[in-house]
Every structure is written in C-alpha cells, then in structure tokens.
Design goal:
Elements (H helix, E strand, L loop, with lengths): L1 H20 L12 H4 L4 H29 L2 H5 L1 H17 L9 H24 L4 E4 L2 E4 L5 E4 L3 E7 L5 E10 L2 E8 L3 E7 L6 E6 L4 E5 L3 H16 L1
C-alpha cells in the first residue's frame, strides 16, 4: 500500500504540472470550439488545475502516512479513494468560474458528478458485501466482488494460519480498511489472490498445484474454520 499511494500521489502531481504546460489536456476545454475557447480564462484555469492536482497528490501521500502513523489504518488505506473523489469533485465544480461562456452545462456537470459519486458508492458497497462459499460437486465457488470458482483437483494443500504475510502492494483488487479482495503482492508468497473480510485470524490458505496462493477469511472465525474443514474433507475423499 505504501508504494501504491506514493505512485498515485506522484502521478497526480506530475499531471498537475503537465496540464499547466499543456492546457489542451484539460478535459472539456480540449473539445471546445475555438470561438468558445476565447471566453475561457485558460491561464487561470490551468493554474487552478495544477495547484489542485498537486494538492490532491500531496494529500494522498501525506494523508496515508499520517493516518497510518496515528493508527487509523482504515482511513490510511482509503486515502486514494477519499482524496480523489472529494478533490476531483471540488476541482470540477470550481473550474466552472473560469468559463465565461453562457451555457447550461453546469447542471450537466453536477449530474455527471452525481453519477460518478453514486458509482463510487456502489463499488464500495459491493466490495463490502461478504463473499459466500458455494459447494457444487467437485467445485467451490466464492461469490461477490473478485469471487471465483476453483475445482478440488486444482488444490494441492489447504491450511489454517494465524498470520497473514505482509501485503506489499495491490496489483488488481479492492481495498478498504481491513477488507482486501483481488490480487495483491505478499511478502514470501508473491502475487496472491485474497478474499479478506476482517483482520481476525485464522486465515484459510489454499495452495494450488502451480504454487499460487489463495487466502480467505470471514468476519466470523467459525465460518472460516467451517470452510477449511469442508474443503479439507473434499480434498481427502
């Protein structure tokens, strides 16, 4: 997570300097007809966008380490999402003051922002929905975001562990507080698939025939243990 926040933060800062030197990259302005571009204070807009994106980038980096240092891990791990959503919303709304064209696009802008906001909330809500384990003959299905199917024949070993290897970075997944779903790079294990619903052990670790690791746990440790026992029984048949 440290690396991801740093990369995203530096990327935002870089984009900030880029839009100042190349205003044509600013969405909305780059598609305007020439007669309407004349009514846009592009010097002020590009400066505003540069400063705003730099602030967003620095907030992601500093906010992550600050909240992690004071112990608010959930907020720290959500800095990219929170800062980007709030920051971009503020940028889009305030950028309107640099456009002197008499249009009705403000309502459209707010409508689009509303849709984006609802989409983000929807993704977060979907990510919080607990995965369910479904057993179908020799196949096990885990539902929900980043759910998957796996056949018993693909599993080389299954075990319970009270420790989760250190997560180095997210490669393709959902991360919000203690919830981790998708693919992450772990210390010792490398790239692994996670369906983590809490920070409570035990963790169910499945090792596939090709060496890939799948780590799962639920909010209720009893459910994690029951899932382990069921899969172990299916393997030992």
């Amino acid at each position: 997570m440290d690396i991801l926040n740093l990369i995203v933060g530096l990327f935002m800062i870089g984009i900030g300097f880029l839009v100042k030197s190349a205003p044509e990259l600013i969405a909305g302005y780059n598609t305007m007809p020439k007669d309407k571009k004349k009514n846009v204070d592009i010097e002020g807009l590009s400066t505003f966008m540069r400063n705003g994106l730099i602030i967003i980038g620095l907030s992601i980096i500093i906010g992550y380490y600050l909240f992690k240092w004071i112990g608010f891990t959930m907020i720290a791990n959500s800095m990219i999402l929170i800062v980007t959503l709030v920051g971009v919303t503020i940028l889009v709304i305030n950028a309107q003051k640099f456009d002197k064209n008499k249009t009705k696009k403000s309502k459209l802008t707010y409508f689009i922002l509303g849709l984006v906001f609802l989409f983000v909330i929807g993704v977060i809500t979907y990510g919080f929905i607990p995965s369910k384990t479904i057993y179908d003959n020799d196949t096990i299905r885990f539902s929900g975001m980043y759910g998957f199917d796996i056949s018993i024949g693909e599993i080389d070993n299954v075990e319970l562990s009270n420790e989760l290897p250190t997560i180095k970075m997210r490669t393709n997944g959902f991360s919000f507080g203690n919830i981790k779903k998708g693919f992450f790079k772990l210390d010792k294990f490398g790239k692994s698939r996670l369906l983590i619903h809490s920070d409570l052990f035990p963790y169910l670790i499945m090792t596939k025939n090709n060496g890939d690791k799948i780590i799962i746990n639920f909010k209720d440790k009893i459910e994690t243990e029951k899932t382990f026992n069921k899969i172990k029984t299916m393997i030992d048949k």
